[in-house]
């Protein structure tokens, strides 16, 4: 009996092959199985042969957040009590924007050092998310960008952000 099964990738929405004994995974069918054996694997009927989704239901983005005293939670990993005004936060973010100058690498570097979000430890990466999972202004910005592009200053209940669409 084969230890292989077909599963669905939560990040890509595509089927993949997983060996329950070795924990090995692969996008390609196991080479030692015939086409008929692959069709008999657990999960094959549910996940193989379905067309991929027409439009992306999820996007991936990073952000650099600067909170201000009007933010929903005016504290962060670097500052217990944030007292700056929204205008001061925007001014700080504009300075970062000038340094980034469209560079995703510089964006990640500055997000790691300066973002008021816990995602700073991942260069600002928030991972994949769908509609309704983020605050509306942030969601609209992320979905409205092309992959690799950076937004202008976005304001949400969390503070002011620059958003980089990564997927």
UniProtKB/TrEMBL annotation:
Its EC number is 5.2.1.8. It comes from Hebeloma cylindrosporum. Residues 20-60 are annotated as: Disordered. Keywords: Isomerase, Rotamase. GO terms for biological process: regulation of macromolecule metabolic process; regulation of primary metabolic process. It catalyses: [protein]-peptidylproline (omega=180) = [protein]-peptidylproline (omega=0). The keyword Isomerase applies. This is Peptidyl-prolyl cis-trans isomerase. The keyword Zinc-finger does not apply.
